[in-house]
Amino acid sequence: MRDEAFLHRLVFAAGDDFPFEPSRARWQTARVTLLEIHRDAFAGADAPSELFWQAAAKQFARAAEWLDKQPPAVFAEAAGLGLKMDVFIGSWIESDQFDLHLPAAFLRACGKHGLDISVCTND
After folding, report:
1. Residue ranges of the domains in the chain?
2. Please, are residues 33 and 62 in contact by the beta-carbon 8 Å criterion?
3. What b/e sequence results for 103-116 when a residue is b if at least 16 CB atoms lie within 10 Å of its CB, and e otherwise?
4. Cα–Cα distance for residue pair 10/77, rounded to 1 Å
5. What is the pTM of this model?
6. pLDDT tens readout for residues 54-97
């Protein structure tokens, strides 16, 4: 199964707003962006970190709900045909501390479809 076929078998309802794109080269992966959030968007707030994590929690909840709506058979078939799928979390840090909170509902939804989670900072 090509990644394009996999992407088009996923369930997207009106208002889901999870952009996806197939790979455009052999070395490039297809992807669905489940959430994208930038700390800079909260820089002028009184409690920027708190607002950032509130927004992240809402987006993780939306992503978990979307993943839960996906047919497990689509993921199982794709994995059986050799398509490797995971959740990639990228981050840029400016110091030696990295805080990450992954809600249980999101982790359960990833586990339901056999999606490993990779975290990469300063890539």
Report:
1. 3-121
2. no
3. eeebeebbeebebe
4. 12
5. 0.85
6. 999 999 999 999 999 999 999 999 899 888 899 999 888 877 67
